[in-house]
Design brief:
The complex is a heterodimer of chains A (about 160) and B (about 200). Chain A is built from five helices and five strands; from the N terminus they run ββαβββαααα. Chain A has about 160 residues and is an alpha+beta fold. The chains are: A alpha+beta (about 160), B mainly alpha (about 200).
């Protein structure tokens, strides 16, 4: 039995410790916002937070998450009101949408560590998340917008 | 009188022989193995150099601030950066993809608990270094992470991430000699005087 805290909720998972964390999140816990893309840590679609770091859950064994804090896209905010989610909506970022939960989870780490990122910072942080629709320009613009929203929120 | 002189000479010869036997173990204690030998030392280093310049070592000791991949030493895909601590930046930290062990399968991320590059303030570049430049760098605590010669040898002998090079996972070539052989050559290089190759050495 492996105990994992996901989005603030404790779960005891009866599964092989070598199972990819992504399998446990999607198939056992039913949190399907996190997507399977490549299975090889190449595309970023499966990105979730482990103790605040944006890991690739397809290549992370369940055993690594034992006793740790996991946050998925479902837990990024209480009411889908994280500045990134608001900006994503405002700017209609997704096209097909498949990669977007991973994009958001990576962008959230960037904004937490750098509340005012430059284009270069965004490139450095987001290059591990591939979008087959090519929404990169909107992703970049939305991260800048989210940074503004976060500042406005902090003022109000 | 003649007898006395003869006895004195014999005593002197016996003393010299006895002393020469006595001093040998004392000398061995100071330098138990090898005397300095510039040719042998450089020869040993050239073997070490071949290992350090192999992809499994050099790919994480790049000239730039991006790690390398593959036997052709291409720049790591995904625009991965060194970062201040050598473990990446923002949402692109090494351990976000690289686990504590290799993921099974060709082209899947290799892993080690210490996966990363040297930090930005101590970059310890191997790529592009000549044998002479690399030897000087390895011997200079200001460029080698503050290590003495003994600590350099210990790092090569015992460090877990160094050891990964001989267990790199599927599809990756090994360094040109075993780790034990590398340790032997490093020890020889240092014991024979830690001589630096000439500028012409390749």
């Amino acid at each position: 039995m492996i105990t994992v805290t996901v989005n603030g909720q404790r779960h005891d998972i009866d599964a092989d410790p070598n199972m990819p964390l992504l399998w446990a999140i999607r198939d056992i816990l039913g949190l399907t916002g996190t997507k399977y893309g490549c299975g090889a840590a190449q595309c970023g679609a499966c990105t979730v937070h482990l103790n605040g770091e944006s890991i690739r859950s397809c290549c992370t064994r369940l055993s690594r998450a034992a006793g740790q804090q996991i946050v998925t896209i479902e837990g990024l905010s209480a009411n889908n009101n994280h500045p990134l989610q608001v900006a994503w909506n405002e700017m209609n970022v997704p096209q097909c949408g498949y990669c977007q939960s991973g994009q958001l989870m990576s962008a959230a780490v960037l904004l937490r560590e750098n509340p005012n990122p430059t284009d270069q910072d965004i490139d450095d942080a987001m290059s591990g998340n591939i979008c087959r629709c090519g929404t990169y320009q909107r992703i970049r613009a939305a991260i800048h917008r989210a940074a503004e929203l976060a500042k406005e929120g902090a003022k109000s | 009188m003649k007898k006395l002189i003869f006895l004195s000479i014999m005593l002197m010869i016996a003393s010299i022989i006895a002393l020469s036997f006595k001093t040998e173990p004392a000398r061995k204690k100071i330098n138990p193995t090898i005397v300095k030998d510039s040719i042998g030392s450089v020869k040993a280093f050239m073997s070490v150099y071949k290992v350090l310049m192999s992809p499994r070592c050099m790919n994480c000791h790049p000239a730039g601030d991006q790690p390398l991949q593959g036997d052709d030493n291409h720049i790591h895909t995904m625009n991965v950066k060194r970062g201040v601590d050598g473990h990446g930046v923002y949402s692109m930290r090494c351990s976000n993809c690289h686990q504590a062990e290799n993921d099974p399968g060709v082209h899947l991320p290799p892993g080690n608990p210490k996966w990363g590059l040297p930090p930005a303030k101590m970059r310890m570049v191997f790529q592009g270094r000549t044998p002479r430049e690399l030897a000087i760098q390895l011997l200079d605590p200001k460029q080698n992470g503050g290590r003495t010669k003994a600590q350099v040898l210990d790092h090569i002998t015992n460090d877990g991430l160094v050891g990964w090079a001989w267990h790199p996972g599927e599809g990756r070539t090994l360094p040109p000699m075993t780790r034990a052989a590398l340790v032997t050559q490093t020890r020889l290089w240092i014991a024979k005087g830690a001589y630096v190759p000439s500028a012409k050495a390749k």
